[in-house]
Each structure stands twice: as structure tokens, then as C-alpha cells.
Design brief:
mainly alpha, two-stranded antiparallel sheet, 2 strands, about 70% helix, about 5% strand
Length: about 170
């Protein structure tokens, strides 16, 4: 743990995650809206020209799915590598290495990978429970039991979330 660093309170971490989900939701909604305009334009052109545009619709639907699936991990890794997401920054939190420096891209990827794998594995084991509920329970469970409030993904990636503001 960095010298004189305060572990980030769990409620602040959760609030930061909610802010980040809102940011991700806004970005994906805006981008999906643009793609939807493309779908409507294709439908209008298809009707007027008499062409079958089923393949184009399928391609646009695939693009929306890929967009939604890529925005969250790219956002998280990019922000974690520099030390803070929008939510973390807004609430005075910072992600650092145990030496107190920015995590960098490798640690950010490791942190994200462990988080996603743990959600997937636990969801497979506890398939009747929503995967995000499982992830929340595991993350909170480990963090609550540790004095430094580090969770599984922090332990493996060698990161630590601190609270800079008071």
C-alpha cells in the first residue's frame, strides 16, 4: 500500500461504478442512435429502390452489438491505466500500483481480465443468480474482509484504490 494512502471506501467505489455505468450507457446509447439512423435510412432507400436490405440490417445490428460490447472494456482499461475513470475522478478516487504510480496498460488489462473471468466463472457456478450480482457479492466480500479494501482483481493486478479527497 502506498505510504499514507487511505483505502477508498466501498460506498465511494460503488458510487464511482454507477457514474461510470451512466457514462458508458450514454456513449453506447448515442452511438446506437447514430446506427439506428443508418438503419432507418437503409429502410427508406430499400423501399424506394425495391432492393432487399436484410443483410445490411444484420450488419448494422452486429455493429451495435459489437459497439456495446467494446465500449465498456475499452473505457475501463484506458481509464484504469491512467489511474481514474470519470466516476473515480468525480469522487476523489485514484487507482495506483502498490508503489503509488499509475497502473499502466498491462495492469489495467490484467485487472479487467480477472474481473471479467471471475464474473464468468462465478456465473457458471451460480447460474441462477445474475452475473453482476455475483460479481458485486464477491468484490464486496473480499474487499470487506481486507483492511486495505482490495478486491480479487486488485490483488492479482497489483493495484490499490485510494481516496485522495477528504
Amino acid at each position: 500500500m502506498p505510504d499514507q494512502a487511505r483505502p477508498a471506501p466501498l460506498l465511494r467505489r460503488a458510487a464511482a461504478a454507477v457514474i461510470d455505468l451512466l457514462v458508458i450507457g450514454a456513449v453506447t446509447t448515442a452511438a446506437a442512435g447514430v446506427l439506428l439512423i443508418g438503419i432507418v435510412a437503409l429502410a427508406v432507400m430499400g423501399r424506394s429502390s425495391g432492393h432487399d436490405l436484410t443483410g445490411a440490417f444484420a450488419l448494422l445490428a452486429l455493429a451495435v452489438g459489437a459497439l456495446v460490447g467494446l465500449v465498456a472494456p475499452v473505457y475501463a482499461v484506458r481509464c484504469w491505466s491512467r489511474g481514474a475513470t470519470a466516476g473515480m475522478h468525480a469522487l476523489g478516487l485514484r487507482l495506483v500500483t502498490l508503489q503509488g504510480s499509475e497502473p499502466g496498460i498491462r495492469r489495467a488489462i490484467a485487472r479487467g481480465t480477472v474481473l471479467v473471468v471471475s464474473i464468468g466463472v462465478l456465473s457458471a457456478v451460480l447460474w441462477q443468480i445474475d452475473p453482476w450480482v455475483v460479481a458485486l457479492l464477491v468484490t464486496l466480500g473480499v474487499a470487506i474482509l481486507r483492511r486495505d479494501r482490495r478486491s480479487v482483481h486488485d490483488l492479482i493486478a497489483g493495484t490499490f484504490m485510494i481516496w485522495e479527497s477528504q
